[in-house]
């Protein structure tokens, strides 16, 4: 089995690792780099639990081969908070009780941040459309949408 040497940036830090050519980014993040915030929900890109950004673009880590990230920048849920200081989205998810079991929460947070990085004043429809690739099996989406809209309002101030 061929192994690839990968040099990349993850959550702002330069990282080097070896991976098998068929390993997904999700597998490497969780199993090799111990960044376990991204979750495996479906392994087919249908649930969004493994959402990360790759060069600022929202992707499902289960659909990206680890070897493809050579020279690119990846941001995971672990890259949202700064030390003990939660990102405003993380705090608003807590304030709005926009989570239950937590499996989908990292993916929703990464996706919502990707939206707000592009559009600081989204409509409710835009938030719902943007988050449509993230599935939650425990709760309704209203609290999540409200948390994102509230965060956008606070961040614009």
Low-confidence blocks of residues: none
Q: Portion of residues in helices?
A: 25-40%
Indicate the CATH class of the largest domain: Alpha Beta
Structural class: alpha+beta
**Number of domains as seen in the coordinates:** 2
Rounded to the nearest angstrom, the radius of gyration is 16 Å
Return the CATH topology of the largest domain.
Ubiquitin-like (UB roll)
CATH superfamily of the largest domain: Beta-grasp domain
Tally of alpha and pi helices: 5
Following the backbone from N to C, one meets helices and strands in this order, namely EEHEEEHHHH
Estimated share of beta-strand residues: 15-25%
CATH architecture of the largest domain: Roll
What's the arrangement of strands in the largest beta sheet? 2-1-5-3-4
What's the gist of this structure?
The protein is an alpha+beta fold and 157 residues long. It has helices at residues 25-32, 88-95, 105-118, 124-130, 142-156; strands spanning 3-10, 13-20, 51-54, 57-60, 73-75.
Overview of the molecule:
This protein has 157 residues and is an alpha+beta fold. The chain folds into 2 domains: 3-79, Roll (Ubiquitin-like (UB roll)); 88-156, [2Fe-2S]-binding domain (DNA polymerase, domain 1, Orthogonal Bundle), CATH 1.10.150. It is built from 5 helices and 5 strands; from the N terminus they run E-E-H-E-E-E-H-H-H-H. It has helices spanning 25-32, 88-95, 105-118, 124-130, 142-156, and strands spanning 3-10, 13-20, 51-54, 57-60, 73-75. Strands 2-1-5-3-4 form a 5-stranded mixed sheet, with helices on both faces. Strand 3 (51-54) and strand 4 form a beta hairpin. The longest helix has 15 residues, at 142-156. The model has no long low-confidence stretch (mean pLDDT 95).
């Amino acid at each position: 089995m061929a192994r690839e040497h990968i040099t990349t940036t993850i959550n702002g830090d330069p990282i080097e690792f070896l991976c098998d050519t068929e390993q997904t980014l999700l597998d490497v993040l969780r199993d090799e780099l111990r960044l376990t915030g991204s979750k495996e929900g479906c392994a087919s890109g249908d649930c969004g639990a493994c959402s990360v950004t790759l060069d600022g673009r929202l992707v499902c880590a289960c659909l990206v081969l680890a070897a493809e990230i050579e020279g690119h920048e990846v941001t995971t849920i672990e890259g949202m908070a700064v030390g003990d200081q939660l990102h405003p989205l993380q705090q608003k998810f807590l304030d709005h009780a926009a989570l239950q079991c937590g499996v989908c929460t990292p993916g929703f947070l990464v996706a919502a941040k990707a939206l707000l990085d592009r559009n600081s004043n989204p409509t409710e429809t835009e938030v719902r459309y943007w988050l449509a690739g993230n599935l939650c099996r425990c709760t309704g989406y209203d609290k999540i949408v409200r948390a994102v809209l509230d965060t956008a309002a606070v961040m614009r101030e």
